[in-house]
Structure formats: structure tokens, C-alpha cells
Specification:
The complex is a heterodimer of chains A (about 325) and B (about 300). Chain A has about 325 residues and is mainly α. Chain A contains 14 helices and no strands. Chain A has one domain: Orthogonal Bundle (MetI-like fold), CATH 1.10.3720. In chain B, helix 12 packs antiparallel against helix 13. Classes of the chains: A mainly alpha (about 325), B mainly alpha (about 300). Chains A and B meet through helix 1, helix 3, helix 4, helix 5 and helix 7 of A and helix 1, helix 2, helix 4, helix 5 and helix 6 of B.
């Protein structure tokens, strides 16, 4: 008996040690690029050619950061990104939760087919519909109403949404933003898992369906709201596909970082050295992830607990 | 919408019908968006791929040309076919690896230990960093410029120092290459697996504890209870994760096929770009359908909630 106990204990100890080692190594892999970006940001680009410099630069300098910061107009692009990601995720949250609730609680003709189509749309790569969607927004026909009016008016009335805020916010509002289908799925799964008694009680008390949703469901659904809010904020923050295509006038931080090679001012007659660009690119990346990193640190605990409670599956 | 629905409900409409109508109204906003911003563009993508598309100021000329675009893409655009096969080869081993590694990590993170919260926070970092731009800059930029231009500090990311160390202590060249391939693979997979780990963690949390207790009482080992309890109950999550991973690879901006599609779109070769993206979509959907078909009978649903 005693031998058995000590054996199981030593096995457990070995397991714990192994877990610690594995997690430590993998944490290093995850944290490594952040440290690496930090090391890049505080050095002079010329240090890259110095074999004695690996992690710690010869001189700690803010020159690289200020240069990159002004090249990507950090102040204004940061504001644009915050606005774009914030508004888009808010719109996505509103529509996706409503739709998710509709799919979770109601059965009507075609609801299963529509849900199937929703799942199908998760699998379609964004690039496949990018250009036709561009056309749809360039010649926006008021949700096909224009086409109905065409025989009466003799032409198809349309609006040019290209390069207007509507081109990016309208899809988000109508549940067709970045990965919206996935969010609807997440909401639906969460709402399905809620006990229905509360809603029945509210209905008996005479609350309408929308009122029940807003008063009873939304307050209890913090976990999926938080998870979806964080994920969509990050994905809108990092977007380099939709913004340059639909609203190029609007320069967000991610787009500026993506095109950093063309934004660094180079004196006439000179070319940008490889090592310069190399360090600048990495510094720009650090500037891009820093705000999201800070945001994540603030909500990290609630976020992780929410993931546990969302019961995604 | 609010006002309208309320007015409708005040009429003496039977409850069941009312409920159906309410459900439809709940998804109406999405449905409008789905038709206009997904379904129509999706159909148009197919139409473009069978047409010659000329952009003129203010309008677009679309003339049907049959399969010409497909022939151009598949026969006369060698870089596309090469990139396509290369990307597919990578996907074949990278997707299973991502899934396995994130399952493994999620199970580790699901056990009780000190600093669990911190560890979970760390493993979410990839979600922030790896979506797109940063990954593109860090990984692809180094490939583009070629390793010859790097010295030790810039090559940190490739683990060249470690490789050199292995060679120095007398590892055979070939074995070192293998080890480095695995290490770099793990690197990329951990980087790719942020969301997958989250999904698996949520799935693991949903497994009732009493099942493990019962198995323990019956004398089942950890290994057995993994295969008899965890694996079957987790199977819907695994399917979701698989789909997510496929789609994630399919729409990633650091993916060479996607880069090619964007290049042609930028050069205003819209028809060619559309054809490429349709081909890419078909491949993705075939892979997804294959996964669904192969796993169809093995997925276990603990309850009817699906």
C-alpha cells in the first residue's frame, strides 16, 4: 500500500515536472517574438550588421521608434484604427447576437436551411468574395431595391459607397463583417445552452420577444459578448484586406504597418538599406500590437473565464 | 424594426405563428446582409471567373468567355500552380499538427497547477500577434530577402544558432535538419493555434467531472479515460477546430496563394484574380467536405444541442 502510494506520488511529480518543462518551453516560443520585437525597436538599424549584438543593442535608442512612428503617422493612424475596430466590433456584436438568438430559440420555415448556409459561409475564404463585394459596394443598389425600381425608372439607381465609411461599416452592421458568421455561431451555441425557463416566465408576464431578449438574455450573456468583442476587435484591428480595398482613403495602423516599406522617407539618390527596413518593419509591428496587448492585459482574466463559460462546441 | 414588431404582436395572432414571425425578424437584418454582401458577391465571383472583366471609369464590362480564364490560370500562370501545390503540401501536414498540438496544449492548460491563469494568458498572445500583418512581416519577409543577407541577430527567429550548436556538438547534418524542421514546425503551429486552444479549452471545460470520477472508481487509467471519455465528447469541438484551421489557412494573408490572388487584383486583372479565388475556394470546400465525410460517423454528440 505504501509502495503504491509513493509510486503514484512520484508519477504525479514527474508529470508535474514534465508539464512545467513543456509549458515553459512553449511559453518561450510564444513570448519570444515579443521580446525580439522589443530588442529590434530599441536599437540602431546598423547594429544588425554587428555580430556582437544579438539581443542587447550597443546603444539603447528611441531614434528608431520615433522615425517609424512618424513614418506611419502613429498618432492619427492609431486613432483611426481604434475608431474602425471599435465601431465595427460594436456593430458586429449587436447584429450577430440578435441573429444568434434568432437561430437558437426560434424555428420557422427555412431556418435550418439558412443556418446551413451560415455555416457554409464560414468556410468561404474572404478573398473569393472580395472583388464582387467591391462591385456590390461601388454600385450599391439599396439592398437590391434599385433593381426592382429599374423597370420604372429606366435605369438602376445606385450609390457609390467606395471610399466612404459606409463601405466598411454597412457590412459589419448587416452581419457580413470579418468572420461575422463565426460570431453568430458562437452566440447561437451559448444561447442554446441557456435554460429556457426564464424566457418562458418573461413571456407569460407579457414581455415581447425583443424585450425578453434585451432584458433577460443580454444581461446574462456577458461571456459570449466579451469573447466575441475581443476577437472581433483584434481581427478588425489587424485587417489589411477590407480597408485598403473598400476605403483606401482611410489609413489604419495595420495598413500603414503593412506598407511600411513605402512610407519610410528616403533622401533623394539613396535607397533604403535592407537592414534599415528590416529593423523598421519589426519596430512598426511592435507599435501595431502594443495597444491590443495592453487592452488584452486589462481584460485578460475576465476573458479567459468567459471562454470557459461560453461552452463553445 | 422594434416598433413594427411590437405593433404586430398586439394583434390576436396565435402564439406559435407569432413566435415564428419573431424568429424571422430576429435574423432579418443578417439575412439582408447575407444576401447582399455574401450570396450575390459569391455568385458573381463564379460569373466573373467565366467572363472577361474590363474596368472602365464608372462601369464594368463583363463578357462571357467560357473556360478561358481557367485555362489561363492553370496552364499559363506557372507561379500560381506552383504556389498552389506548395501551399497544399504544407497544409496537409500543418493542419493536423496544429490541431494535435493545440489539443495537447489545451489539455495541459486544463489541469490544475499554480500559474494556470498566467499560462493561459500567454497562450492567447498568438491570436493577437499572428493574425496577418505581423506574421507576414516576421516570417515571409525573411524568406523573401533570403537567409544569405542575415547575420546572427536577424536570423534569431530561424533558430540558426541552435542549429549551429547541434552541429558543433557532433550531430549528423541530416538529423540536425530534421530536428530543426520539427522545431520550426512547432514554432509555427503554436503560433497558429491561439483560437484552437481557446476552443478546445472551452470544450474540455464542458465535460462533466463525474464521468472521470466514475472511470477512476472503475480503475481506468488516464490513457483509457482520455480515449473513452475526453476524445468522444470532444469530437464536435475537434470538427469545429478542424474547420476553423482549414479556413484560417485558406484566408491567411501570409499564404502564398492568397498573396497571388491579391497581386492580380491589384494589377486590375479582376477576372484572373476571381478565377484563382474560385479555384482556391473549391479546393478548400473539397478539403472541408472530405473532413466532414470521413468523420461523419465518428462524431459523438453528448446531447441534442449539437
Amino acid at each position: 500500500m505504501r509502495i503504491a502510494m509513493t509510486r503514484s506520488r512520484s508519477i504525479r511529480l514527474a508529470g508535474a515536472t514534465l508539464r512545467t518543462v513543456v509549458l515553459f518551453c512553449l511559453s518561450f516560443i510564444v513570448l519570444y517574438p515579443v521580446l525580439y520585437l522589443l530588442s529590434m525597436a530599441f536599437r540602431n538599424p546598423i547594429d544588425l550588421l554587428d555580430p556582437s549584438v544579438i539581443w542587447i543593442p550597443n546603444v539603447l535608442t528611441l531614434a528608431t521608434i520615433t522615425k517609424v512612428g512618424s513614418a506611419i503617422a502613429y498618432g492619427s493612424t492609431l486613432g483611426s484604427s481604434l475608431l474602425f475596430a471599435g465601431v465595427s466590433s460594436f456593430l458586429s456584436l449587436a447584429t450577430c447576437s440578435l441573429t444568434g438568438y434568432g437561430f437558437a430559440r426560434f424555428r420557422f420555415r427555412g431556418s435550418r436551411v439558412l443556418f446551413g448556409l451560415l455555416l457554409f459561409s464560414i468556410v468561404v475564404p474572404a478573398q473569393t468574395i472580395a472583388i464582387p463585394l467591391f462591385q456590390q459596394l461601388r454600385f450599391f443598389d439599396f439592398f437590391s431595391l434599385g433593381r426592382l425600381l429599374a423597370p420604372i425608372m429606366g435605369y438602376t439607381p445606385s450609390l457609390n459607397l467606395y471610399n466612404t465609411p459606409a463601405a466598411v461599416y454597412l457590412p459589419a452592421l448587416f452581419g457580413a463583417g470579418i468572420r461575422s458568421s463565426l460570431y453568430i455561431y458562437i452566440f447561437r451555441q451559448f444561447f442554446k445552452g441557456l435554460p429556457q425557463d426564464l424566457e418562458d416566465a418573461a413571456n407569460i408576464d407579457g414581455a415581447g420577444f425583443l424585450k425578453t431578449f434585451l432584458r433577460i438574455i443580454v444581461p446574462t450573456a456577458t461571456p459570449p459578448y466579451l469573447v466575441v468583442a475581443i476577437l472581433s476587435f483584434i481581427w478588425y484591428w489587424n485587417d489589411v484586406l477590407w480597408i485598403p480595398l473598400f476605403y483606401p482613403k482611410y489609413l489604419t495602423l495595420s495598413v500603414a504597418v503593412d506598407t511600411i516599406a513605402n512610407r519610410i522617407p528616403v533622401p533623394r539618390g539613396q535607397t533604403l538599406e535592407f537592414f534599415d527596413l528590416f529593423v523598421y518593419q519589426r519596430t512598426a509591428c511592435l507599435l501595431l500590437i502594443l495597444p491590443v496587448l495592453l487592452l488584452y492585459m486589462v481584460v485578460q482574466r475576465q476573458f479567459i473565464q468567459s471562454v470557459d463559460r461560453t461552452g463553445l462546441k | 424594426m422594434t416598433r413594427r414588431s411590437r405593433r404586430l404582436f398586439q394583434f390576436p395572432i396565435p402564439y406559435e405563428r407569432k413566435k415564428r414571425l419573431a424568429g424571422f425578424l430576429f435574423i432579418l437584418v443578417w439575412l439582408i446582409g447575407f444576401v447582399n454582401f455574401f450570396a450575390i458577391p459569391f455568385i458573381n465571383a463564379f460569373i466573373y471567373s467565366f467572363s472577361s472583366v474590363q474596368t472602365k471609369p464608372g462601369a464594368m464590362e463583363i463578357t462571357p468567355v467560357g473556360f478561358r480564364n481557367y485555362l489561363t490560370v492553370l496552364l499559363n500562370t506557372p507561379d500560381f500552380v506552383i504556389r498552389l501545390t506548395g501551399t497544399l503540401q504544407e497544409m496537409v501536414w500543418q493542419i493536423p499538427m496544429t490541431i494535435l498540438l493545440s489539443l495537447f496544449l489545451a489539455m495541459l492548460l486544463n489541469t490544475r497547477f499554480r500559474g494556470r491563469m498566467f499560462a493561459r494568458a500567454v497562450f492567447f498572445l498568438p491570436v493577437i500577434i499572428s493574425s496577418g500583418v505581423v506574421m507576414n512581416v516576421i516570417v515571409n519577409a525573411s524568406v523573401e530577402y533570403g537567409a544569405s543577407m542575415m547575420n546572427t541577430s536577424s536570423a534569431l527567429f530561424q533558430g540558426i544558432q541552435f542549429e549551429r550548436m547541434l552541429l558543433d556538438i557532433g550531430f549528423p547534418l541530416e538529423a540536425t535538419g530534421r530536428i530543426m524542421m520539427i522545431i520550426n514546425g512547432v514554432f509555427r503551429q503554436v503560433w497558429r493555434g491561439g483560437v484552437q486552444i481557446l476552443l478546445f479549452l472551452a470544450g474540455l471545460q464542458a465535460i462533466p467531472k463525474y464521468l472521470y470520477e466514475a472511470a477512476d472508481v472503475e480503475g481506468a487509467t488516464r490513457w483509457e479515460s482520455f480515449w473513452k471519455i475526453t476524445f468522444p465528447i470532444l469530437s464536435p469541438t475537434t470538427i469545429l477546430v478542424t474547420f476553423y484551421t482549414i479556413v484560417d489557412y485558406g484566408s491567411d494573408v501570409s499564404n502564398f496563394v492568397v498573396i497571388t490572388i491579391r497581386e492580380y487584383a491589384r494589377r486590375a486583372r479582376l477576372d484572373i484574380s476571381a478565377t484563382m479565388s474560385v479555384i482556391w475556394f473549391l479546393i478548400i470546400i473539397v478539403i472541408a467536405a472530405l473532413v466532414l465525410f470521413l468523420t461523419r460517423k465518428r462524431v459523438y454528440f453528448m446531447d441534442d444541442r449539437g
